[in-house]
Amino acid sequence: MMPVGFFFRRVEDLAVILRSKRNEILTAAVLMAPFIVVYGVLFIYPTIKMVQISFTNAPLIGEGSFVGIENFVRLWNTRLFHTAVWDTFYFVILSVLPSAVFGLIIALGVNRLKGWAQSVVLACFFLPYILPVSVVYRIWSWMFDKDFGIAQYVIAPFNGGEHLSIFRTIPVFMPAVAFVTVWWLMGFNVLLFIAGLRNINKEIYEAAALDGAGRWTQFSKITWPLVWPVTVLVLTIQLILQLKIFDQVYLFANGGRTDATIVMVQYIYKVAFQQNHGGLGAAASLVLFLIIVIFSVLQFQVLRTGSKDN
Amino acid sequence: MKRILKIALAATALLAVAGATSATFAKDTIVWWDFLGGGDGVRMKALIDQFNKEHADSVEIQATTLDWGTPFYTKVQTSAAVGQGPDMMTYHESRIPLGISTGSLSPITPEELKASGIQASDFEPANWKAAESADGTQYAVPLDIHSIILYYNKTLLKQAGLLGDDGKPKGLDGVANWDAALAKLTANGVVGLSVPTADGATMWRIFYTLLNQQDGVFLNKDNKFLDGDNLDKATTALTEMQKWVKSGWTPSQTEYPASIALFTSGKAAMHINGVWEVPTMVDLQKKGQLFDWGAIQIPTFYAHPATWADSHSFAIPNRQGNPVDPAKRKLVLDTIHWFNQHSLSWAGGGHIPAFKPVRDSEDFKNLKPNSDYAGLAATAVFDPVSTLAGVASPVYDAAGNYIMPAMNGDMAPADAASQMRDDLQGQVK
User: What is the pTM of this model?
Assistant: First the structure.
């Protein structure tokens, strides 16, 4: 027989549980509220507002009147915007794949090192990544400086013995900025790849070696397929990041032929902040937003399907 | 749960109390924003300290230095729109048309100016006018005039026989003389002139100087860029600038810091740059690292003297819904007047005091080389009055896109002039 007191205790317990359940929901709501409010105020609301503004002729600050799709038509007919779109994709091509390829190669090398040597080498490759863009800009503008730059010793022989102004010669501008960007951001990719490589079980290599697989076979049949998910991640992160390229291009081109090397975010900055056309800037932002969404989803899907084949 | 809510409530109440008490001031404060982050900023800070010391028991300036250029003006515009921001701020005169159009600036009445002792006759007419809107409303009070000047190496000029007995260059006026001088100075690994040929802003300043020396009008009253024969005058100016590079008298595509280094290392006999680089030279010479040098007004190449100029001025932001109250405005204008009266130490930064009594004083006349080039103020030409012109404006961008490649020989002068005209004309609303 169950003691009566026990039963009563259980009812009390149930009441406590029920009460605390209600409390939990309330607590959860209170704890989540700051995030939801901040996310709504700082992300959802501005995004909705941006879409709304892109259909008006608003200045940078203040209200404008509805103009339909006029801003988008204007972008379509603006040569400078075409240049910006083209230059952005050109930069993506120049920077995304190289930074992934070199990241993987360096990671493979670093991974073969042991102990403190590995830490030191890894730190060396990661060091540029922690620099702010202004410092990166200063370093490379002095390295490449036409009159005093140390890199001119390497460049001059390829230019008939003459010094070459890297950031004022239009055809070499984008490749040079891409080079600096790869140098700057590659460390992060190296880190991701090393994490991926370390996840591969050593025993697989040992088994393969016993079966007589050479280095190349080991790489192409084991390392590459197993590190592919990390590669997809790296490529997607880089694609999104480089579609939003602004800082380096802006800094290196400043004072020069900015219209010839303009990228999309720079175009948005120019029309919205410099020329006070908030509506047009919002329209360009929306186009960039859609491009990023479409291309990153597309790339991610294509690459993921690729991994299934492997 | 209740406890968390209680604590949150208590914290809010505390904050509100703290906010209320800090709103009651013992003495007046002036919130000040400027963009003077360079070598001249140090001088301004010293001047602000002096002001605070002199007014220790009445007024205190609380100064903040922000990023120069577009970031500064964007911040002023956004904060004014929501009724926030400073009580007073520095403002480029060339940027005033854009400031008026975006509603960032608060007009200053003649009565207010008079009450604080500020009068137009103490300034150059062109300088004063550049702080007005088209209908003559005053929006700012100038502090200085800054311009480009010609720095020169006395030793090298003397060797070439181009230095007069007064220690100033001679025989540089007129295009033919100037070209001959550059050719003569370019010898033995030394070039005649260094300029930041990779920097659009400097290109604009030189171009605008040469254009105005020919009475060229960059933007006329009908909002037409380089209208009529002004296009030819622009081409003439660009052709001359290109000639310096093409003839090997001026190195092409030189970055701003490198162009200064070329001059200070003795590899260039002359250098054209802003007056704000005077402290660089003064400091180097103090350390014994610079030759005997001087600086004068840009020579007269064409019909008459004229030099591009801009002006740091003081303005009051147009804070929406929270305007600077009349008593504070009076205080701000008094402060502006004080800074003009004390602008001699500001002149140490190379700038020419806008306030004539200071410029005419003995102390300023003894300030070298500043007083050697201060005469340019009388013929200074300010940027076109347009929302498309001024510091960090579409006109400055156009200088980088067209004037810069033209000077460096990447674009034909006539093409550059007409393309620049079409580009800017296309941006007129």
Answer: 0.84
- The distance of B317 to chain A (nearest Cα, Å) reads 15
CB-nearest partner of B400 from A23, A257, A274: A257
Check B404 against A259: CB less than 8 A apart: no
Reported residue count of chain A is 310
Q: Tell me whether residue A114 is exposed, middle or buried, using C-beta atoms within 10 angstroms of its C-beta: 0 to 12, 13 to 18, 19 or more.
A: exposed
Question: Mind listing the pLDDT tens digit for each residue in A39-96?
Answer: 999 999 999 999 999 999 998 888 889 999 999 999 999 999 999 999 999 999 999 9
Q: Do A168 and B102 touch (CB under 8 A)?
A: no
Instruction: Name the packing angle between helices B230-246 and B175-185 (round to 10°).
Output: 20
- Residue A276 to residue B101, Cβ atoms within 8 A: yes
Average confidence score pLDDT of chain B? 91
**Within-domain flag for B363:** no
User: CA of B116, closest CA in chain A: separation in Å?
Assistant: 33
Q: What is the ipTM of this complex?
A: 0.79
Q: Which helix (H) or strand (E) holds A289?
A: helix A278-309
pLDDT of B373-401, one tens digit each?
A: 999 999 999 999 998 998 888 999 999 99
Q: Is the pLDDT of residue B234 over 50?
A: yes
Number of independent structural domains in chain A: 1
Per-residue pLDDT band at B21 (split at 50, 70, 90) = very low
CATH number at residue A192: 1.10.3720.10
Q: Choose the mutation target among B1, B194, B199, B255 for the interface with A, i.e. most A CBs under 10 Å.
A: B255
Smallest CA–CA distance, residue A168 to chain B, in Å, is 7
A120 part of a folded domain: yes
Between CA B36 and CA B310 the distance in angstroms is 15
Would you state the pLDDT for residue B428? Answer: 86
Q: Give the whole-angstrom CA distance, residue B186 versus residue B190.
A: 5
Residue in B198, B258, B392 nearest the CB of A148: B258
Instruction: Confirm whether B375 is domain-assigned.
Output: no
Average pLDDT over residues A5-16: 64
Surface-to-core class of residue A305, CB atoms within 10 Å of its CB (0-12 exposed, 13-18 middle, 19+ buried):
exposed
Residue A61 lies in a domain: no
In angstroms, the separation between the Cα of residue B186 and the nearest Cα of chain A is: 17
pLDDT of residue A308: 52
What residues in A contact B253, CB-CB < 8 Å? 146, 165, 168-169
The answer to whether the Cβ–Cβ distance between B70 and A273 falls below 8 Å is: yes
Structural domain including B18 reads 2-142+312-353
B31: number of Cβ within 10 Å? 18
> Are B266 and B328 found together in one domain?
no
Give yes or no for a contact between B191 and B251, defined as CB atoms under 8 angstroms apart.
yes
